[in-house]
Amino acid sequence: MPSFRLLLYSFSWFSISVFGALPDNAEKLIAEKLAPLDSSQPNSIKKRFADIFDIMAQAEKHSAMGGEALLRQGIKLRNEYGPMKRDTTAAVIIAGWNYAKASGAFNSNNQFTGRITRGIDVGQQLVFEAVVPASVAPEFSNEFANYRLVAPSRARSSDSPLSHRDAAYLKTLQAIASETAGSDHHQLHTTQWEAQMTELGDQVNAIPKVRLSNRFKASPSGKNDYKWQVEVTVANATQIPTEITLECYIIGKLWKSKRACVLRKHSIPVKLKRSETRQVIAETIPREDCKLLMDNYEKLGKEERANSRVVYSGIVILARHSTGHLASAASHPALLNLITEGHNLSSELNILTN
After folding, report:
1. Cα separation of 105 and 223, whole Å?
2. Which are the contacts of 3, defined by CB distance < 8 A and separation ≥ 6?
3. Strand spans (E) along the chain
4. What stretch of H or E contains 138?
5. Are residues 182 and 176 in contact, defined by beta-carbon separation less than 8 angstroms?
6. Helix segments in 25-65, DSSP class H
7. 254 backbone dihedrals φ, ψ, rounded to 5°
8. Is the dihedral of CA 65, 98, 123, 49 positive or negative?
9. Are 86 and 114 in contact (CB under 8 A)?
10. Tens digits of per-residue pLDDT, 163-203?
11. Which three-class secondary structure state does DSSP give residue 345?
């Protein structure tokens, strides 16, 4: 007899495919589909892609967020994904999703069928092709970022050599693997921090002293999924380990009213060992997603939306501890005026997304 959990899961998918409703936990459903696969699941990745496309299609129809933004929200729930893996996986799935739509590979119920109804190879099934095949790098045979969707006539034959472009993509996959290995370093850091906290006992309850700085890292481009990125540096100025939270507010300007707004708020917990300096990245959501949220907030008309654009202004950073506010910083002095006497960001600023 199937368990209650299995029945509930099955009903979720029944509601999506039959009733066309997008469940409240759609991001979690996507995150579940992005769980790591092992060698015992060689054919599961194609089914996972199809399931994700189905959820995105329903989001496109039933959610103001849309399919692509929902996908990114789901990917963020995979805590084991580093920034490179998150961005590359999103780009690959979105590329496949767009190719499937252009090929007419969805039925009238917005379900992905894989059957081509427009363009080349009409009537045939789209092919999920490994960019770097298992014969070259078997360790990436279950990596979502290693797949693309192509028409069968454009699929690489089993005896064809890799193109220079596909061979170069192997370096991207290797970089993702290195990033994942870096999560082991994170666990080591946590273990060392916990040891220092235990060693010093009640001393760790003292109010810490930290120094903040920041530097602009990147403007939106294809390399960073079209996000503004800022590197924030926090330094523990004491010999006592501590844990703080960095509240990072990426500031922009509303297009119509010209008022300041928060393009994105980050709350980032940071564990600091004795005298340690660490860097974290604060970033917006993709520029077009920022624009959609901004346009919706200002209730712009069709012509206004065609002309509006997102303006990045800088960043405001507040460092907080369980004992209270520790320090503030901003990318330029004028933005410090957005901080109230109570060490909070002004409530007059609309926060577009967290």
Report:
1. 28
2. none
3. 127-130, 147-150, 210-218, 229-236, 242-253, 260-272, 277-283, 311-321, 324-330
4. none
5. no
6. 26-33, 44-62
7. -65, 140
8. negative
9. no
10. 988 988 998 998 888 877 666 667 778 888 889 899 888 88
11. strand
Cβ atoms of 314 and 335 closer than 8 Å: yes
Cα distance between residue 338 and residue 329, in whole Å = 11
- Paired tokens of 237: 């100025």
Q: Give 235's strand partners.
A: 211, 277
Q: What is the largest CA-CA distance in the chain?
A: 71
Structure tokens at 37: 């696969």
In three-state secondary structure terms, 311 is strand
- Single-letter residue type at 117: T
Residue type (1 letter), 270: V
106: tokens are 């969805």
Q: Which residues of the chain have pLDDT under 70?
A: 1-21, 38-43, 181-185
Distance between CA atoms of residues 205 and 209, nearest Å: 12
Query: Is residue 36 a contact partner of residue 80, using CB atoms and an 8 Å limit?
Result: yes
Which CATH architecture is the domain 206-338 placed in?
Sandwich (2.60)
Residue in the block written with tokens 């202004």: 313
What are the sequence ranges of the domains in the chain?
A: 4-169, 206-338
CB under 8 A, 24+ apart: contacts of 190-198 = 190/271, 192/273, 193/241, 193/271, 193/272, 193/273, 196/241, 196/273, 196/274, 197/241
CB 296 within 8 A of CB 257: no
Give the tens place of pLDDT for each residue, 101-140.
999 999 998 899 999 999 999 999 999 999 999 889 988 9
